[in-house]
Amino acid sequence: MRSIFQLFIRGGIPVSAPVNMETSVPVNTIPGRNIPVLFCLSIIAAAAAAMITEGLIMAMQALSTYCGLPGMSRDLDEHNLMVLLIPVIVTLLIALVLRYAGDRVRQLLRPVQSILSINAGIPLGLEGALADMPFVAVSQVKRAGVREKQILAAAAIAGGIAFLFGSPLAAIALIIELLMVELTWVGITAVILGGGTGMLLHYLLRGSDAIFMMPEVTMAGVPALLGYTVTGLLVGLVAILARKMLNGIGHLFRKLPVDKLWWPVAGAMLTGIIGYFSPEILGAGYEHIDSLLLGQVTLQFLVVMALGKLLLMSITVGSGIPGGTMAPLLVSGGALGLFVTFLLQFMFPAVQLNFALAALVGMTAMFAGGNRVLPAAIFFAIETTHVTNALLPVICGCTAAYLVVFLLAKKKVAQPAVLPENVS
């Protein structure tokens, strides 16, 4: 049963890259008397992750010119030398620090590296740092088994993601789909507590408004649902190409005649050069999601975002720069979904397709097909927009993308992510 479940969820682009997906960890039995304590620690860990996320957002808003957080606007000009140089300078400084640091320090600095890189314009998401920090933190706990550490880390990640996006169900489903492959009741309960804690703090500190702005839409008819399904199928095909492109670029970096410590510098150089001509594709790019959902885009913008985000994501991840892949996949998928729907509307003018729905379907279909998750992508769409009439189109698009990826992509079963071996 476990291998079948892994077959469905593995083989996609990792949410946090690069990740350790090679070493298997034996599952230890958790004593019954430790379970209540574990649940309490899960709530504390999730609350800590949420508060750290709030602190990171507040700190990164001071540098919003490059990072691109939800609700923040950027004013970047083409041919701006700072746009070219900032990613290179920051990545070079990080490489110099890591050059003289030991393995233990490198692992502790990895979340910091991710945050600084995003602030400098590297086009990866903050969710990467949210996935790294809990694993690094709990690995320092000595009086706990490997399984307890994994559960605490998973609960903290769920809390951080739920706080960042205001999407507890998506966070819980994402953790269960990608990390909790044993599906034990203890692990699932801890993750639910973590996601609920993150959402509670989001409500208290950031309010109950939707993270992404989207106009209200009417229920889609059957012809429109078919159109959104076709959009999901095409986005799924692009998700397969994105995975192949990421693997191919990573292979090219491995052929460089330099130590892999300097690969991120080369990746940052390429990022800076591309950003010099198209600065809008730098940074996490969450702020572009509102533009896509509201239709405030041009055809050129759609092409640049659909292709440029995937290219830069492949370059940065392939070069070894840590960060999240959700953000670039969402932006690229939204642009691609909108572009495909424009074509479908031109070919079939009698079918009434909503372009806000098209962008949302494209976003979540790329999320589902790229990261190889399904319930998490569907929950994410509804929780971040609060538009319930989008549920059926999103289900159609995400399911189509997920199925085409599952049927066409290589089905390599991997092991669950584990804590760093030398600090556990």
From TrEMBL:
Keywords: Chloride, Chloride channel, Ion channel, Ion transport, Membrane, Transmembrane, Transmembrane helix, Transport. The keyword Transmembrane helix applies. The chain crosses the membrane at residues 37-61, 81-101, 151-179, 185-205, 217-241, 261-278, 299-321, 327-348, 355-382, 388-409. It is found in: Membrane. InterPro entries: Cl-channel_core, ClC, ClC-type_chloride_channel. Gene3D superfamilies: Clc chloride channel (1.10.3080.10). It is a multi-pass membrane protein. This is H+/Cl-antiporter ClcA. It comes from Chitinophaga ginsengisoli.
